[in-house]
Queue: 4 jobs
Job 1
Amino acid sequence: MNCKNQTIKSLQSMLVVGLALFSVQCGTAHNLSPDDVTDLTYPSSFKYVHRKQIVSKMHHLARTLDSLEKHFQDNPSEPSMTLVLQYLMDLQTTANKLAGGTTNNEKIDRYLPQFWSDIEAAKQQVQSTPPDFSKAQQVGYACHNCHMR
């Protein structure tokens, strides 16, 4: 049985390598980019997010959250509703670029919808009369929920 499992694993490995080489060859022959091959090999509901894109967007989220937190520290009694909303919308726009359907990143699929929802709730509270900044001050906690697990 052990020999049979090893044979199956070897065949699977050869198949994967063969498919990869075939994809590269087809892509080269038809001037297809890796993104084109990805589009052809995954269902339309699946969003492939490259690691470089994840890192770039996460760094942007971190910088925006730092700016938001600094604004609250510098203006504890009178934060600017306009500026806070601007930061929240920037966070939401960046999160949208990572999310949307099923991705190749389990943590994005699991935690980003809640992060987006937290931002939306914070925006609604900031726009209320009188403005409530409590949720906007806690938006960064979602990052800890994801990155500490």
Job 2
Amino acid sequence: MSLSIDISKLKCIGYATFIGIVMGVLIALMIKLLFFMIDLSKDLPFESFYLAPIILPLVWYLNRWLSKKEIVFQEDEIKEIYDYIELNKDEKPHYLHYVFAKIFLFFATVFVGGSVGPERQGIQLGAGMCQFFAKVFSCKGFDRRSLVVAGIAAAFSVILGAPIAAPVIAIELMAVHIVVYETLLAATIASFFAFLSAKFLHIDYHYFEPLPHFFPQYEWSLFLPVILAGLFFALLSFVIVRFFRVLSFFNVATAVHPVLKAVFVGSFIMLLGSYGLTSPLGLGVDEIESTFKATENVAWYLPLLKIVATAFTLEFGGEGGVFTPLLYVGSMSGHWFGQFIGGNAPFFAALGFVSVIAATMRIPVSSAILAAELFGVKRPILPSLPF
């Protein structure tokens, strides 16, 4: 019995290490290509957002063509993959070429200023690669489920630069209600090896001072503002979720052709850029970092514009994830809240950074760990590549 248990654990460690290294390399390459595309857009003789009314309809059309050729994934696509693996079905086709095509569409969306993040593509790539390797390794049942969680953890580890929080994020997102030791072990090992692989490939990260440097000491006078901030972030998260649902219902209910909707969203992005409101467009990584500086002033309407731009982009033609835009909304709204009450703005930006994600994505445990990892010591926020 003990021998079989040891062999099982060794297999788990071996698979997780392999998945972590492979995913670290793939996600690192994806990030490098992403920032190459962003730099390429800056070298154009005109602003790239002027291409949005043309590119976004093409992205929608290619998405529709892909959905006819491959599996159609909705917002619960990763849980669908997990359920499929749970049933040990082997007849469902691998869809790695579909995933790489979606990554290309994500690049096109960011290129023209679409408000999206890379997490969706990272999760798809992690789940797809693990599904492929599970069949190569002839894994069944529990081993296959562990591989999927490990792949998603590896993707979040590289994208967020948080190898400790990434395994818990993967488990919470996958709604794995019964946390098994081997699953957590595989996700943790894959997360750290992915992070180390990305660092080996020179993925650099934004750094900022640790929490004690500019955050206030714990005292009773801070108790009430923190409670008010929690209520404020809860209300904001409620508005975000409701707005996305209403917009989704509107998209289904209206008879307007989807191409025209994509043209409208592209025109909206172009209009924002033309009036100098480029902060809510694109990834927003630099803007997130700036909120942790006490000298930064944040306008109240920027988080709201980011919500609208993200919802429009994702619902009407764009391709990408919502995780990074929510980090933007949380940190920006938190900084503004700190300004409004006359408090320490970077402190409330840090609270909003994790609170909005916790409420909207329903990952409170991993958000708390993410906060401890990012703000407890000098740690990275999101990847940034110097060229």
Job 3
Amino acid sequence: AGDRELSMLDAGDLRIQLGGRELVAGLSLVPDILPWLAGVEYVHVDDRLPRLAVDPDGTAPVVVSIDGSPDGTLEPFTVALSIPEAFRLENAGIDDDSLTVDWRPPGRGVAGPGTIVLHLQAFATLPDGVSEPRGEEITCLVADTGQAALALSPLAGSGLAVDADLLRVSASRFDVARMAAGAFGEVEVIVELRGTLYSSTSH
């Protein structure tokens, strides 16, 4: 089989409405680093984001619009989503044969637990004090209840170096909307909030 290439599509102008302010994400070429990745990406960095009107459940409305790709493959669309409630990881540690991760759960206005994504990566500390990754990064989907207890044996069997010096835990809470977008088919629009902490794995 021939090599496959992942092409990032030019979807036209990308606008994000936050409260009373509209942000326009800039379009740039994907860096020529990986031979199988090409196309464009949208990036916007802003330390002056507006204060949002938060709903009773802790979420905030956001509207995402695109003008559509120049060749018409992806048609214009506008979709309304919710920025998830502010996410904060509080603790991660290994005790006996399990990894326990704690975070602030969503507020009382949320009807039932949703799902969050955990990314686990172990690091080894070199003699010069620099940390480098060990083993594989593991991704887990867990209920958004405020705590997850994960057995070490299946994590190690999937490639996580549970005996390393340091563990990085990254987590995200998200909202997803799906819609038809012309000849391109169905698309997903994802709004995500992330948090990261580091923990010693000594146990």
Job 4
Amino acid sequence: MSTINPHRIHYRNQVAAVDWGRDFISDQAYQFVRLELENGTPKPGLQDNLMLERCVSHLMALCSCSKHTAETHAARAIAELCSRESRVSFDMDRSTSYALFVVDRATNTTRVVSAAELLRMLHQHHVSPAEPTTAA
């Protein structure tokens, strides 16, 4: 006889179909995030990394991968699944390491955001990455 932990969140019994177009770890990340969203987990904000942390732990345990690899796949899945309804997307063919082309699909307009501009935006929200160090 099993006992039910009253503090544990009970998820609906859901089985996700495998997407054979993705590698195993990516597919597991997408399934984890999709199920989290379907079960009411709020979409992450600028300062909320809980879903990312949980997905990374899940991927590291399930796939025996490094934290860096798990973070990459988890962040990609979260960003893509949480942005599906967004009217903007990134044009990856034209974007570079320092210029991000943002396409507004509703108006068919493009805006370029530089790495410096993005850093300023992150500073305004108080979630900037570590300050870059300069070599002497």
